[in-house]
Each structure stands twice: as structure tokens, then as C-alpha cells.
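=== RUN LOG ===
request id: a7f3
mode: sequence -> structure
chains: 1
length: 424
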Amino acid sequence: MKKNTNKPLADLMRPETIDDIVGQKLLLGDNGLVRQMAESGNLSNLLLWGPPGCGKTTLARALARTTDMEFMAMSAVFSGTADIKKAIESARMLRETGRGTLLFIDEIHRFNKTQQDTLLPYLEDGTVVFIGATTENPSFNLNNALLSRCHIGVLEPLNTEDLLTLLTRSEKFLNTRLPLSQDARITLAQMSDGDARFLLNTAEYLNSAKFKKDLESDELASVINKRAPLSDRNGDEHYNLISAIHKSLRASDTDAALYWAARMIEGGQDPQYIFRRIARFAVEDIGLADPHALGVVMHAWEAFKRMGSPEGDLALTHAIIYLGTSPKSIGAYKAHGAAKAAAIKYGTLMPPKNILNAPTKMMKSLDYGKGYVYEPETAGGFSGQNCFPEKMGRTTFYHPIEVGFEREIKKRIEYWNKLRSGVK
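=== RESULT ===
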């Protein structure tokens, strides 16, 4: 430690072999992709996709050491095409001496198309074995040409048991016992939210601090900054969480929807983005099964705009609970799509003349408005007159179901259909 006082504990404790890595059993188990590569000594180009602190860089370094390859690392945040070419030239020189090179590029999704394409010839001819690390969905952020040349390794956040193992390792490395009660140890693992780097940085701080007694869970939370739940505002996780809210509401799992919404807000997401999504949910997945749903969302949204966070966050909770516990129907959503398809199919057919206005004598002479019936003056407020284009015929787009208020709408429509067909 004294020789490396400027290095953080996470770097000092970085595993040197894949056997020392905690977690990632899917990749490192007996039949795991990375395990098979390491044991065969035949590395392939690889993209490692996972959240921060799950071990992407550690895994790449361990692979290079296990296969005795030169490890060259760069970050796409700070590097460019010129840096890639320098690394390739160094790899060529090493290749002439019989030594292979593992080129590791962190945050590979930050490279633009040209920079990504620069790598392709060297992946093809084997000048380097390439490993890229990304926190973003590769299928959204990387070129197809690069994807087609790489295996994809998906890394999961470390679970509580994995993090507790790391915490014990840190105490052995530091040759000390951290000032934490047993409950506080578990709390720290949970607060780390799958991020080993956060846990080890916290362990380093606790080791240097001078606490007079072991910290309990509530005391730990007050002396360290809690890691915000993962919810990047623009990346893949952003869309995962908003999808989780929508699907939870659709399943009437109100508590789950509240949890995912809280995750987004704690991660720094603007609640108004969530309001936009649940307003869509109100019209798409509830529709007329509960005509009040959209109004509840809009009133809650307006309340949030007036109060702001954190007071207005309760208005969002109010709306989510209402939507989650409302009856669901996609009748209006399907009617919209069917009507749109019919509009495209039938083109510019004119409305029937009975429902056209006739403000001029010429239009009256052409029978505009002839036969129009003013519904409010009819018995029962319904005449059954045709409002579809004559060349199209009647078509049913909206099919209400026996759920919520749509049950009443269904009865009305069936009654009107009987009147249209002349059935008394």
C-alpha cells in the first residue's frame, strides 16, 4: 500500500486471473464463453456489455495475463483514430517477436462510425485481439460491421453475496477490520447496487476514517454518499426502466410500477418524462374502460408543474396508483389503427351528401345536405343515418369489451346497431 499510495483500492485489488474474479458465473462458469476462451488459449474479439463496476476492465486484463498477451488499453472518451493507429503499429512490432496483443477499448460506444471502422481490418487479419467494453446496448450504439466480428459477453451487476465477498477480501488486503456492524455490512453491499468499485472506494474511506465504534446501518447511510440507483437519462437503462413502468401498469402490478418510477427519479430522471409516458398509457392501455384515467394523469401533471420536486412527486405517485388499479382496454388504440388503415386504403372518397353543409344555392341544387337528420330532435336521439362514404360501406373499427365503462359503451353500440338493422 505504501508504494501505491496514489492508487485507489479498487485498482490495487484488481484480480490477476479469471479464477480470482467474483461473480459473472454465466461467462466464467465451466461452459462460459470467457472460461472456454481462456482455457483454450484461443481468444476471439469480444464486446463486454454491463453496468459500471461489474468487472469489464478486470476481466479483459485477466484474459491478457492468462494468455500471456500484451495488454494495451485506451478509452474511447479520450482517444481517436490516431491513437488506434499507434496501438496497431505497436501490435505489429510485437507480432514480429511472436507476442500477441490484446487491445482493450473502454466506452467503445463513444467512438463514431469512422473510428469504429478503423478497427475492422486489424480484427480481420489478427493484428490484435480486440475487447471492447460498453455500458450501452451494443445493438443500438455499435456498427453492424463491428458487431459481426465480435462475440457479445453480457455482464450482470454483482449481487449482495458477491459484494460481501469483496468486502471481506478488502479487509484481508488492508489487514484490518472495517468499523461496520453485521447489518451495516449488508447495507453497504445493498447500497452499492451491484457496483464493486463503489463498495471498494467506500471500504477505503472507512479504513482511513477514525470511527470510535462500529457503524450501524442508519449511521453508515449518514456518513457516505449513497450510490444513486442506475438510471442514465439517455442510454439503454433509461429505456429499460420506462418500459418496466409501462409493462407493470399494463399487468396491473401497481407496486412494481411505483418501484420502477422511484428508480428513475432517484437516478435523476425528470418526472415529466414519466408523466408523458403514463399519459400515453392512459389512452393506449386504459382508454374508455375508465374515461377518467387521462384526466387524472393530466391533473396530476399540472399539479407537479405547479409544485415541482419533491412535493410534486406525490402527484406522480397518485397518477400511477390510479392507472395501475384501473380496468384495461386497448379498444380505442386498436380503433385508431384500424381507422388509419382504412383512410389509407380508401383514399379521397367524399362523405355522403346527407352530412355535407349546403351554404350556397348551387350546393343545395347538387343535393348537399339532402336527407340530413338532426339527431337531438329524433325519438331517442338516434336516427341511424349513414355517415360513411357511399362506396365504402359501414365498417366497425371500435370493439369495446366487457370491462369497466366500456361495458356500458358496448351496450349502447349494440342497441344502435339493432336500430340500424331495423330490429325493434
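=== NOTES ===
The longest strand covers residues 70-75.
The radius of gyration is 32 Å.
=== END ===
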